Amino acid sequence: MLLTIEKLIYGGDGLARLPADAHGRGKAVFLPFVLAGEQIEASVTEQKPGFARAEALAIITPSPHRVSPACPYFGQCGGCHYQHSSYEHQLEIKKEILRETLRRTAKVDLPCQIQVHASPPWNYRNRSRFQIKTQPSFAVGYFKLASHELLPVEECPISSPLINRAISAMWQSGRAGKVPEGVQEVEFFANADDSQLVVELYCGIESRRAAVRAWAEELRAAMPEIAGVAAFRRATSGMPGSQEKLLSVGVPYLTYETLRAAYRVSTGSFFQTNRHLTDGLVKVVTEGMSGELALDLYAGVGLFSTALACDFHHIVSVESSQTSTGDLAYNLPSNGEAVQATTEQYLARTENSGRAGKGNVLPHILPTPDLAVVDPPRSGLGERVVRQVANLDAQRLTYVSCDPATLARDLVPLLAAGYRLEQVHLVDLFPQTYHLESVVQLVK
Fold it and tell me: So where's the catalytic machinery, residue-wise (predicted)?
Protein backbone atom coordinates (compact mmCIF):
# COMPACT_ATOMS: atom_id res chain seq x y z
CA MET A 1 0.00 0.00 0.00
CA LEU A 2 1.05 3.61 -0.56
CA LEU A 3 1.37 5.81 2.55
CA THR A 4 2.24 9.48 2.98
CA ILE A 5 4.13 10.33 6.15
CA GLU A 6 2.51 13.21 8.04
CA LYS A 7 5.17 13.75 10.70
CA LEU A 8 7.58 12.01 13.05
CA ILE A 9 6.51 11.32 16.62
CA TYR A 10 8.40 10.81 19.87
CA GLY A 11 9.79 7.28 19.78
CA GLY A 12 11.24 7.60 16.27
CA ASP A 13 8.32 6.39 14.15
CA GLY A 14 6.62 8.22 11.32
CA LEU A 15 2.86 8.74 11.41
CA ALA A 16 0.70 7.96 8.36
CA ARG A 17 -2.97 7.07 7.99
CA LEU A 18 -4.88 4.31 6.30
CA PRO A 19 -7.68 5.37 3.93
CA ALA A 20 -10.69 6.76 5.80
CA ASP A 21 -13.38 4.26 6.74
CA ALA A 22 -17.11 4.77 7.26
CA HIS A 23 -16.42 6.53 10.56
CA GLY A 24 -14.26 9.22 8.99
CA ARG A 25 -10.59 9.63 9.75
CA GLY A 26 -8.28 6.79 8.76
CA LYS A 27 -6.52 4.61 11.31
CA ALA A 28 -3.07 5.78 12.39
CA VAL A 29 -0.12 3.77 11.06
CA PHE A 30 3.33 3.92 12.63
CA LEU A 31 6.49 2.90 10.78
CA PRO A 32 10.20 3.46 11.44
CA PHE A 33 13.01 4.96 9.33
CA VAL A 34 10.86 7.37 7.34
CA LEU A 35 10.63 11.18 7.15
CA ALA A 36 7.76 13.66 6.94
CA GLY A 37 6.39 14.20 3.45
CA GLU A 38 7.73 10.95 2.03
CA GLN A 39 5.57 8.60 0.00
CA ILE A 40 6.23 5.05 1.08
CA GLU A 41 5.34 1.65 -0.31
CA ALA A 42 4.56 -0.14 2.94
CA SER A 43 3.31 -3.41 4.33
CA VAL A 44 1.24 -3.62 7.53
CA THR A 45 2.95 -5.83 10.11
CA GLU A 46 0.53 -5.47 13.03
CA GLN A 47 -3.12 -4.47 13.42
CA LYS A 48 -4.51 -3.11 16.69
CA PRO A 49 -8.01 -1.74 17.38
CA GLY A 50 -6.80 1.88 17.35
CA PHE A 51 -3.68 1.81 15.18
CA ALA A 52 -1.47 -0.31 12.95
CA ARG A 53 2.26 -0.82 12.50
CA ALA A 54 3.97 -1.13 9.14
CA GLU A 55 7.36 -1.41 7.52
CA ALA A 56 8.64 0.52 4.53
CA LEU A 57 9.23 -1.63 1.47
CA ALA A 58 10.34 1.21 -0.81
CA ILE A 59 10.75 4.97 -0.65
CA ILE A 60 8.71 6.23 -3.60
CA THR A 61 9.22 9.96 -2.99
CA PRO A 62 12.18 10.59 -0.67
CA SER A 63 12.51 13.63 1.57
CA PRO A 64 15.20 16.16 0.60
CA HIS A 65 16.53 15.62 4.14
CA ARG A 66 17.12 11.89 3.61
CA VAL A 67 20.79 10.80 3.73
CA SER A 68 22.65 7.48 3.63
CA PRO A 69 23.16 6.03 7.13
CA ALA A 70 26.77 6.00 8.34
CA CYS A 71 26.43 2.77 10.32
CA PRO A 72 26.26 -0.66 8.64
CA TYR A 73 23.92 -1.88 11.39
CA PHE A 74 21.36 0.93 11.11
CA GLY A 75 17.85 -0.41 10.63
CA GLN A 76 18.65 -3.67 12.42
CA CYS A 77 20.12 -2.24 15.62
CA GLY A 78 17.76 -0.78 18.20
CA GLY A 79 20.17 1.96 19.25
CA CYS A 80 19.69 4.63 16.56
CA HIS A 81 16.53 5.92 14.86
CA TYR A 82 17.46 8.97 12.76
CA GLN A 83 20.60 8.12 10.80
CA HIS A 84 18.56 8.35 7.59
CA SER A 85 18.06 12.08 8.26
CA SER A 86 20.51 14.96 7.97
CA TYR A 87 21.58 16.14 11.40
CA GLU A 88 20.14 19.62 10.84
CA HIS A 89 16.75 18.07 10.14
CA GLN A 90 17.01 15.83 13.22
CA LEU A 91 17.18 18.99 15.32
CA GLU A 92 14.09 20.38 13.58
CA ILE A 93 12.23 17.11 14.21
CA LYS A 94 13.06 17.19 17.91
CA LYS A 95 12.24 20.88 18.27
CA GLU A 96 8.82 20.36 16.72
CA ILE A 97 8.12 17.29 18.89
CA LEU A 98 9.02 19.29 22.01
CA ARG A 99 6.89 22.25 20.93
CA GLU A 100 3.88 20.10 20.02
CA THR A 101 4.08 18.02 23.22
CA LEU A 102 4.13 21.14 25.40
CA ARG A 103 1.22 22.60 23.44
CA ARG A 104 -0.89 19.44 23.48
CA THR A 105 -0.31 18.25 27.07
CA ALA A 106 0.62 21.38 29.02
CA LYS A 107 -1.55 23.68 26.86
CA VAL A 108 1.46 25.98 26.48
CA ASP A 109 2.01 28.20 23.47
CA LEU A 110 5.65 29.01 24.07
CA PRO A 111 6.26 32.67 24.90
CA CYS A 112 9.89 32.24 23.80
CA GLN A 113 11.93 30.54 21.10
CA ILE A 114 13.28 27.06 21.77
CA GLN A 115 17.04 27.54 21.99
CA VAL A 116 18.81 24.63 20.29
CA HIS A 117 22.24 23.40 21.40
CA ALA A 118 23.67 21.04 18.78
CA SER A 119 26.29 18.35 19.28
CA PRO A 120 28.86 16.87 16.95
CA PRO A 121 26.66 14.09 15.54
CA TRP A 122 29.17 11.20 15.74
CA ASN A 123 31.49 9.62 18.33
CA TYR A 124 29.81 11.62 21.08
CA ARG A 125 29.00 8.94 23.65
CA ASN A 126 31.33 8.62 26.64
CA ARG A 127 29.29 5.69 27.99
CA SER A 128 28.03 2.70 26.01
CA ARG A 129 26.57 -0.61 27.16
CA PHE A 130 26.66 -3.83 25.13
CA GLN A 131 25.17 -7.29 25.42
CA ILE A 132 27.47 -10.32 25.50
CA LYS A 133 26.93 -13.99 24.77
CA THR A 134 29.56 -16.70 25.11
CA GLN A 135 27.60 -19.74 23.86
CA PRO A 136 27.49 -21.33 21.35
CA SER A 137 29.95 -18.72 20.09
CA PHE A 138 31.07 -15.35 21.38
CA ALA A 139 29.38 -12.11 20.33
CA VAL A 140 29.12 -8.57 21.66
CA GLY A 141 26.53 -6.10 20.43
CA TYR A 142 23.18 -4.42 20.90
CA PHE A 143 19.67 -5.80 20.90
CA LYS A 144 17.99 -5.85 17.52
CA LEU A 145 15.21 -3.35 16.92
CA ALA A 146 12.12 -4.21 19.02
CA SER A 147 13.56 -7.51 20.26
CA HIS A 148 15.87 -9.10 22.80
CA GLU A 149 17.87 -10.89 20.13
CA LEU A 150 21.55 -9.96 20.08
CA LEU A 151 22.88 -8.18 17.00
CA PRO A 152 26.70 -8.56 16.90
CA VAL A 153 28.43 -5.23 16.26
CA GLU A 154 32.13 -4.56 15.75
CA GLU A 155 31.87 -0.78 15.75
CA CYS A 156 29.52 1.93 16.99
CA PRO A 157 29.86 5.32 15.28
CA ILE A 158 28.04 7.23 18.03
CA SER A 159 30.46 5.92 20.70
CA SER A 160 33.82 7.57 21.36
CA PRO A 161 36.94 6.37 19.51
CA LEU A 162 38.33 4.86 22.72
CA ILE A 163 35.12 2.92 23.32
CA ASN A 164 35.34 1.60 19.76
CA ARG A 165 38.86 0.39 20.51
CA ALA A 166 37.49 -1.33 23.61
CA ILE A 167 34.84 -3.06 21.48
CA SER A 168 37.64 -4.40 19.27
CA ALA A 169 39.56 -5.60 22.33
CA MET A 170 36.43 -7.37 23.56
CA TRP A 171 36.03 -9.18 20.23
CA GLN A 172 39.68 -10.19 20.23
CA SER A 173 39.37 -11.64 23.72
CA GLY A 174 36.07 -13.36 22.92
CA ARG A 175 37.33 -14.97 19.73
CA ALA A 176 40.27 -16.33 21.71
CA GLY A 177 37.80 -18.01 24.07
CA LYS A 178 38.87 -15.96 27.09
CA VAL A 179 35.54 -14.45 28.16
CA PRO A 180 34.33 -16.30 31.28
CA GLU A 181 30.95 -17.97 31.46
CA GLY A 182 28.18 -15.81 32.86
CA VAL A 183 29.35 -12.39 31.65
CA GLN A 184 26.17 -10.94 30.14
CA GLU A 185 26.77 -7.22 29.63
CA VAL A 186 29.67 -4.78 29.48
CA GLU A 187 29.57 -1.02 29.92
CA PHE A 188 32.42 1.31 28.99
CA PHE A 189 32.76 4.80 30.46
CA ALA A 190 35.44 7.12 29.06
CA ASN A 191 36.76 10.35 30.54
CA ALA A 192 36.40 13.78 28.95
CA ASP A 193 39.45 13.64 26.68
CA ASP A 194 38.85 9.98 25.76
CA SER A 195 42.20 8.89 27.19
CA GLN A 196 41.00 6.52 29.93
CA LEU A 197 38.02 4.33 30.60
CA VAL A 198 36.53 2.10 33.24
CA VAL A 199 34.74 -1.14 32.45
CA GLU A 200 31.65 -2.45 34.23
CA LEU A 201 30.78 -6.13 33.79
CA TYR A 202 27.32 -7.48 34.60
CA CYS A 203 27.28 -11.19 35.31
CA GLY A 204 24.84 -13.99 35.99
CA ILE A 205 24.82 -15.96 39.23
CA GLU A 206 26.94 -18.68 37.59
CA SER A 207 29.93 -16.33 37.25
CA ARG A 208 32.99 -17.27 39.27
CA ARG A 209 34.97 -14.51 40.95
CA ALA A 210 38.40 -15.97 40.21
CA ALA A 211 37.69 -16.41 36.49
CA VAL A 212 36.24 -12.91 36.11
CA ARG A 213 39.16 -11.38 38.02
CA ALA A 214 41.73 -13.13 35.82
CA TRP A 215 39.96 -11.94 32.68
CA ALA A 216 39.72 -8.37 34.02
CA GLU A 217 43.47 -8.35 34.59
CA GLU A 218 43.99 -9.61 31.03
CA LEU A 219 41.83 -6.82 29.63
CA ARG A 220 43.84 -4.18 31.50
CA ALA A 221 47.10 -5.66 30.28
CA ALA A 222 45.87 -5.72 26.67
CA MET A 223 44.53 -2.15 26.81
CA PRO A 224 46.46 0.16 29.17
CA GLU A 225 43.80 2.88 28.83
CA ILE A 226 41.53 0.75 31.04
CA ALA A 227 41.96 2.36 34.47
CA GLY A 228 39.78 -0.17 36.25
CA VAL A 229 37.25 -2.97 35.94
CA ALA A 230 34.29 -3.56 38.26
CA ALA A 231 32.09 -6.64 38.05
CA PHE A 232 28.56 -6.97 39.39
CA ARG A 233 26.57 -10.18 39.81
CA ARG A 234 22.85 -10.69 40.03
CA ALA A 235 22.02 -10.95 43.71
CA THR A 236 20.52 -14.20 44.96
CA SER A 237 18.53 -12.33 47.62
CA GLY A 238 16.98 -8.89 47.94
CA MET A 239 14.95 -7.00 45.38
CA PRO A 240 14.40 -8.63 41.96
CA GLY A 241 17.04 -7.41 39.54
CA SER A 242 19.34 -6.18 42.29
CA GLN A 243 23.10 -6.49 41.82
CA GLU A 244 25.93 -7.23 44.22
CA LYS A 245 29.52 -6.18 43.61
CA LEU A 246 31.59 -9.18 42.63
CA LEU A 247 35.03 -7.57 42.41
CA SER A 248 37.02 -4.49 41.48
CA VAL A 249 40.38 -4.42 39.71
CA GLY A 250 42.44 -1.25 39.32
CA VAL A 251 40.94 2.18 40.01
CA PRO A 252 37.16 2.09 40.67
CA TYR A 253 36.51 5.58 39.29
CA LEU A 254 37.43 8.13 36.63
CA THR A 255 38.15 11.82 37.06
CA TYR A 256 36.01 13.68 34.55
CA GLU A 257 37.32 17.17 33.74
CA THR A 258 34.96 19.95 32.64
CA LEU A 259 35.43 23.70 32.25
CA ARG A 260 33.87 24.37 35.67
CA ALA A 261 35.10 21.45 37.79
CA ALA A 262 36.65 17.99 37.96
CA TYR A 263 34.34 15.17 39.05
CA ARG A 264 35.05 11.80 40.55
CA VAL A 265 32.72 9.32 38.85
CA SER A 266 32.79 5.82 40.34
CA THR A 267 31.71 2.63 38.65
CA GLY A 268 27.96 2.41 39.17
CA SER A 269 27.47 6.20 39.35
CA PHE A 270 25.43 8.18 36.84
CA PHE A 271 27.01 10.81 34.57
CA GLN A 272 25.80 12.51 31.40
CA THR A 273 26.71 10.56 28.26
CA ASN A 274 27.54 13.25 25.68
CA ARG A 275 31.22 14.16 26.00
CA HIS A 276 30.84 17.20 23.73
CA LEU A 277 27.87 18.85 25.45
CA THR A 278 28.58 18.33 29.16
CA ASP A 279 29.88 21.88 29.52
CA GLY A 280 27.06 23.24 27.37
CA LEU A 281 24.41 21.56 29.53
CA VAL A 282 26.01 22.87 32.73
CA LYS A 283 26.09 26.37 31.26
CA VAL A 284 22.40 26.26 30.31
CA VAL A 285 21.42 25.14 33.82
CA THR A 286 23.70 27.39 35.87
CA GLU A 287 24.44 30.56 33.89
CA GLY A 288 23.15 33.71 35.56
CA MET A 289 22.00 31.87 38.69
CA SER A 290 23.08 33.15 42.12
CA GLY A 291 21.74 33.66 45.62
CA GLU A 292 21.76 32.34 49.15
CA LEU A 293 20.49 28.79 48.71
CA ALA A 294 20.18 26.38 45.77
CA LEU A 295 18.57 22.95 45.96
CA ASP A 296 19.73 20.30 43.45
CA LEU A 297 17.38 17.31 43.31
CA TYR A 298 18.39 14.06 41.56
CA ALA A 299 21.92 15.45 41.86
CA GLY A 300 23.94 12.44 40.67
CA VAL A 301 27.64 13.06 41.30
CA GLY A 302 27.07 16.82 41.46
CA LEU A 303 27.37 17.94 37.83
CA PHE A 304 25.17 20.99 38.43
CA SER A 305 25.72 21.35 42.18
CA THR A 306 29.47 21.79 41.95
CA ALA A 307 29.11 24.55 39.36
CA LEU A 308 26.26 26.25 41.25
CA ALA A 309 28.29 26.25 44.47
CA CYS A 310 30.48 29.00 42.99
CA ASP A 311 27.55 31.44 42.94
CA PHE A 312 25.42 30.40 45.92
CA HIS A 313 26.18 30.77 49.61
CA HIS A 314 24.95 27.23 50.26
CA ILE A 315 23.77 24.32 48.13
CA VAL A 316 21.89 21.20 49.21
CA SER A 317 22.24 18.24 46.82
CA VAL A 318 19.91 15.27 47.09
CA GLU A 319 20.68 11.88 45.51
CA SER A 320 19.17 8.44 46.18
CA SER A 321 22.04 6.23 44.94
CA GLN A 322 24.58 5.36 47.62
CA THR A 323 27.40 5.15 45.06
CA SER A 324 26.56 8.47 43.43
CA THR A 325 26.11 10.16 46.82
CA GLY A 326 29.63 9.11 47.77
CA ASP A 327 30.96 10.83 44.66
CA LEU A 328 28.67 13.80 45.27
CA ALA A 329 30.08 14.36 48.77
CA TYR A 330 33.61 14.08 47.38
CA ASN A 331 32.97 16.52 44.53
CA LEU A 332 31.10 19.24 46.44
CA PRO A 333 33.05 22.19 47.84
CA SER A 334 32.74 23.15 51.50
CA ASN A 335 29.53 25.16 51.02
CA GLY A 336 27.73 22.10 49.63
CA GLU A 337 25.74 19.50 51.56
CA ALA A 338 25.20 16.01 50.12
CA VAL A 339 22.05 14.20 51.26
CA GLN A 340 21.35 10.56 50.46
CA ALA A 341 17.59 10.24 50.09
CA THR A 342 14.97 10.03 47.42
CA THR A 343 13.59 13.38 46.38
CA GLU A 344 10.21 12.40 47.78
CA GLN A 345 11.73 11.50 51.16
CA TYR A 346 13.69 14.71 51.36
CA LEU A 347 10.84 16.99 50.33
CA ALA A 348 8.50 15.28 52.79
CA ARG A 349 10.27 17.39 55.43
CA THR A 350 8.40 20.35 53.99
CA GLU A 351 5.06 18.68 54.61
CA ASN A 352 6.02 17.43 58.07
CA SER A 353 8.05 20.32 59.47
CA GLY A 354 7.27 23.43 57.46
CA ARG A 355 9.94 25.70 56.05
CA ALA A 356 12.55 27.94 57.57
CA GLY A 357 13.29 31.43 56.33
CA LYS A 358 15.21 31.90 53.11
CA GLY A 359 18.83 30.78 53.38
CA ASN A 360 18.55 29.17 56.83
CA VAL A 361 19.59 25.53 56.64
CA LEU A 362 18.21 23.75 59.70
CA PRO A 363 18.54 20.01 60.46
CA HIS A 364 14.84 19.11 60.23
CA ILE A 365 13.29 22.07 58.44
CA LEU A 366 13.58 22.58 54.70
CA PRO A 367 14.42 26.18 53.79
CA THR A 368 13.02 28.12 50.87
CA PRO A 369 15.62 28.02 48.08
CA ASP A 370 16.34 30.82 45.63
CA LEU A 371 16.76 28.12 42.97
CA ALA A 372 15.61 24.52 42.71
CA VAL A 373 17.02 22.26 39.99
CA VAL A 374 15.28 18.98 39.17
CA ASP A 375 16.75 16.37 36.82
CA PRO A 376 14.45 13.36 37.23
CA PRO A 377 14.59 10.04 35.35
CA ARG A 378 12.48 9.46 32.25
CA SER A 379 9.39 8.89 34.40
CA GLY A 380 9.50 12.53 35.49
CA LEU A 381 8.60 13.93 38.90
CA GLY A 382 5.21 12.31 39.29
CA GLU A 383 2.11 13.60 41.05
CA ARG A 384 3.38 13.71 44.64
CA VAL A 385 6.89 15.04 43.98
CA VAL A 386 5.69 17.74 41.58
CA ARG A 387 3.35 18.95 44.31
CA GLN A 388 6.21 18.93 46.82
CA VAL A 389 8.44 20.86 44.40
CA ALA A 390 5.71 23.45 43.83
CA ASN A 391 5.30 23.82 47.60
CA LEU A 392 9.00 24.70 47.94
CA ASP A 393 8.02 28.10 46.54
CA ALA A 394 11.47 28.61 45.03
CA GLN A 395 11.71 31.85 43.09
CA ARG A 396 13.37 30.03 40.19
CA LEU A 397 12.90 26.41 39.10
CA THR A 398 14.97 24.66 36.43
CA TYR A 399 13.62 21.36 35.08
CA VAL A 400 16.07 19.15 33.14
CA SER A 401 14.07 16.52 31.25
CA CYS A 402 14.85 13.49 29.11
CA ASP A 403 11.21 12.85 28.13
CA PRO A 404 8.99 15.61 26.71
CA ALA A 405 5.77 13.79 27.64
CA THR A 406 6.53 13.59 31.37
CA LEU A 407 7.93 17.13 31.30
CA ALA A 408 4.69 18.45 29.81
CA ARG A 409 2.62 16.46 32.32
CA ASP A 410 4.62 17.88 35.25
CA LEU A 411 4.45 21.44 33.91
CA VAL A 412 0.66 21.52 34.31
CA PRO A 413 0.65 21.69 38.14
CA LEU A 414 3.79 23.85 38.20
CA LEU A 415 2.20 26.47 35.96
CA ALA A 416 -0.98 26.26 38.02
CA ALA A 417 1.13 26.97 41.13
CA GLY A 418 2.19 30.32 39.71
CA TYR A 419 5.33 29.53 37.72
CA ARG A 420 5.76 30.89 34.21
CA LEU A 421 8.05 29.74 31.43
CA GLU A 422 11.06 31.96 30.93
CA GLN A 423 13.38 29.86 28.72
CA VAL A 424 13.14 26.54 26.87
CA HIS A 425 16.29 24.80 25.65
CA LEU A 426 16.76 21.71 23.49
CA VAL A 427 20.18 20.25 24.36
CA ASP A 428 20.82 17.48 21.85
CA LEU A 429 22.68 14.96 23.99
CA PHE A 430 21.61 12.04 21.79
CA PRO A 431 22.15 12.66 18.03
CA GLN A 432 20.92 9.93 15.65
CA THR A 433 18.28 8.86 18.21
CA TYR A 434 14.78 10.07 19.10
CA HIS A 435 15.86 10.78 22.69
CA LEU A 436 15.33 14.40 23.58
CA GLU A 437 16.96 16.37 26.41
CA SER A 438 15.40 19.69 27.28
CA VAL A 439 15.89 22.33 29.95
CA VAL A 440 12.96 24.50 31.02
CA GLN A 441 13.56 27.52 33.23
CA LEU A 442 10.59 28.72 35.25
CA VAL A 443 10.22 31.78 37.43
CA LYS A 444 7.62 33.14 39.85
Answer: 402
